């Protein structure tokens, strides 16, 4: 029994009773609907004990449930054990959504409480619609966590860095001009921007308010002639003040966003993105006047990397790939000869990255999972309870870095000793799927839904699936997960299905995850490019940014079709050509063997 979590839920129920709240909802988000958040916002984690990056807790006077996606099913089962909280496996057959659960369980006239600053508008409005018949009251100003989490930390605050515009490709002024053109097309007078990575991109700045994500808590309100930037005063540097003055950006206090919106007397039609603007701010806009829900124009602009960004990314990815190659060489050479754990292996790779010119931070905490731990997609190894590596099985390492010139994300599953025939079959299927997607040729207008089968087909042929998407966009010195592009076969409510544009980068990461046995993932990052254009349309293809060998000790060549075998050999030839100049003599000899041609 997990008494700590049970006590926290009990205290929450006491706070609900005092506030007249019948059901309380705690999602995983900050005031900007960010995927990863500072510890201040980890209310759901504090109340439930579940540490995954995605999940929503719903508590009533008698029940408590947690919803999360397939990446975290195994982890959530372990972490929720003994808490009295029921796990709801999202998208599994027969499992209700949060909205369906609330509709079925809440009684007419009851009150649903939540902090409206951490619930996005799209979800809040859909709750309004589905619960309307029951006349449910929304107490969206209730951050009841403050009454339970007595030692809650303060909001994060770190000085903002202004980027050299030489590595951005466009000035903040040029980007603002593009945004205003988009506002004209939307027939709006103002634009409220809440999405943190979009804000950082727009103003060519970076922050430090979220671990591994270089963003600063902020908002922007843009009109055809004015631009207001809301940020904590403690984050403003002299450099930022000068930068803002240069481009006509008025700095305002972060906490002043609601009074500011309430005080606007002009009849402005305000553009906002309901998926990335909080329900609380939307309610303020709705009370103020006319507003229009539409996609942030900055999201697509940011996702299509310009020539300057792509040139820096190519350079950064080669250096990052070389660091991963050095790590694999070190690991294979030393496993069984010295004590190496999941944690110390990750630390060694992190150290190699830190020595690269322009290194800023990790792009996410390194995932290092050995044997059955790798079956948990987002497993986090902890010192003292992690596995020690030996000359058997496999280690899955998913990692990336933030550099002054790019953000990386790469996964390799490394064979450390004997593995079963079944594991080799799964390993080979994953490699085949990754290579098939790499080699895609497709017409402009395709989305990730059209392409996903190329990666997933070898697994589906074996009646296996991985419960996540195949790919996501990656930011430029920004968040490791970026939209609107993505590669997946199913787009659920709220997910954007975007056309793949030239200049968009996307990960390619099929996998196999067998609970209690093993996990395999092979991940590269690619960039979409325009190919031949003819009477049939604009054809497109992918360029690869990641050059790290796929462990041949896990490949069973007889399971590869001739075309797949050629793709593997061609990729390994490119790996050696591009990476060998960045290695020492011993590492080059190892890489030559690891990228040898097989048949």
From TrEMBL:
Tagged with keyword Hydrolase: yes
Domain Peptidase M24 intervals: 312-527
Keyword annotations of the record: Hydrolase, Metal-binding
GO molecular function annotation: metal ion binding; metalloaminopeptidase activity
SUPFAM superfamilies attached to this UniProt entry: Creatinase/aminopeptidase, Creatinase/prolidase N-terminal domain
Signal peptide (from-to): none
GO terms for cellular component: cytoplasm
Residues annotated as transmembrane: none
CDD domains: APP (cd01085)
Domain of life: Bacteria
Domain Peptidase M24 C-terminal: 538-598
Any Pfam family: Peptidase_M24
Domain Creatinase N-terminal: 8-136
Keyword Metal-binding among UniProt keywords: yes
InterPro entries assigned: Creatin/AminoP/Spt16_N, Creatinase/aminopeptidase-like, Creatinase_N, Pept_M24, Pept_M24B, Peptidase_M24_C, X-Pro_aminopeptidase_P
Annotated family: Belongs to the peptidase M24B family.
Protein name per the record: Peptidase M24
Source organism of the structure: Eisenbergiella tayi
Lineage, top ranks: Bacteria, Bacillati, Bacillota, Clostridia, Lachnospirales
């Amino acid at each position: 029994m997990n008494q700590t979590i049970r006590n926290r839920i009990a205290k929450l129920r006491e706070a609900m009773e005092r506030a007249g709240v019948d059901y309380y909802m705690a999602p995983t988000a900050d005031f900007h609907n960010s995927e990863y958040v500072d510890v201040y916002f980890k209310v759901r984690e504090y109340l439930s004990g579940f540490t995954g990056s995605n999940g929503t807790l719903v508590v009533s006077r008698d029940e408590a449930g947690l919803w999360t996606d397939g990446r975290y099913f195994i982890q959530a089962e372990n972490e929720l054990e003994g808490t009295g909280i029921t796990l709801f496996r999202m998208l599994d057959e027969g499992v209700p959504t949060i909205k369906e659960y609330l509709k079925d369980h809440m009684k007419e006239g009851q009150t649903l409480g939540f902090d409206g600053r951490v619930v996005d508008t799209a979800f809040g409005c859909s709750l309004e619609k589905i619960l309307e018949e029951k006349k449910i009251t929304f107490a969206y100003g209730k951050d009841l966590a403050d009454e339970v989490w007595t030692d809650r930390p303060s909001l994060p605050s770190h000085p903002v860095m202004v980027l050299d515009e030489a590595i951005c490709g466009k000035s903040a002024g040029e980007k603002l001009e593009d945004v205003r053109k988009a506002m004209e097309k939307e027939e709006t007078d103002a634009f409220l921007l809440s999405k943190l990575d979009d804000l950082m991109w727009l103003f060519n700045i970076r922050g430090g308010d979220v671990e591994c994500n270089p963003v600063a808590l902020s908002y922007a309100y843009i009109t055809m002639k004015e631009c207001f930037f809301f940020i904590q005063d403690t984050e403003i540097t002299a450099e930022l003040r000068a930068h803002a003055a240069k481009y006509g950006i008025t700095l305002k206090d972060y906490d002043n966003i609601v009074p500011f919106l309430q005080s606007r007397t002009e009849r402005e039609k305000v553009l906002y993105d309901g998926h990335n603007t909080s329900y609380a701010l939307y309610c303020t806009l709705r009370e103020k006047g006319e507003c229009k829900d539409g996609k942030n124009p900055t999201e697509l602009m940011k996702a299509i990397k310009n020539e300057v960004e792509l040139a820096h990314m190519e350079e950064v990815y080669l250096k990052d790939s070389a660091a991963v190659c050095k790590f694999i060489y070190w690991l294979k050479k030393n496993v069984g000869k010295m004590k190496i754990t999941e944690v110390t292996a990750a630390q060694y790779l992190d150290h190699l990255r830190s020595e690269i010119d322009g290194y800023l931070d990790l792009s996410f905490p390194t995932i290092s999972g050995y044997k059955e731990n790798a079956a948990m997609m987002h497993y986090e190894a902890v010192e003292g309870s992690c596995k020690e590596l030996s000359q058997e099985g496999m280690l899955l390492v998913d990692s990336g870095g933030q550099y002054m010139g790019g953000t990386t994300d790469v996964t390799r599953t490394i064979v450390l000793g004997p593995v079963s025939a079944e594991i080799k079959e799964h390993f080979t299927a994953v490699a085949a799927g990754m290579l098939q997607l790499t080699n895609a040729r497709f017409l402009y207008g395709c989305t990730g839904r059209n392409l996903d089968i190329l990666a997933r087909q070898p697994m589906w042929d074996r009646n296996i699936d991985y419960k996540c998407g195949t790919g996501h966009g990656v930011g430029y010195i920004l968040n490791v997960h970026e939209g609107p592009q993505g590669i997946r076969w199913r787009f659920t409510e709220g997910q954007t299905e975007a056309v793949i544009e030239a200049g968009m980068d996307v990960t390619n990461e099929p996998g196999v995850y067998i609970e209690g046995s093993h996990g395999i993932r092979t991940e590269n990052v690619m960039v979409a490019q325009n190919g031949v254009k003819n009477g049939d349309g604009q054809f497109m293809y992918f360029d690869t940014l990641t050059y790290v060998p796929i462990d041949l000790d896990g490949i069973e060549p007889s399971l590869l079709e001739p075309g797949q075998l050629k793709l593997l050999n061609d990729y390994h030839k490119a790996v050696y050509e591009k990476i060998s100049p960045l290695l020492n003599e011993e590492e080059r000899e190892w890489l030559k063997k690891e990228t040898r041609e097989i048949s």
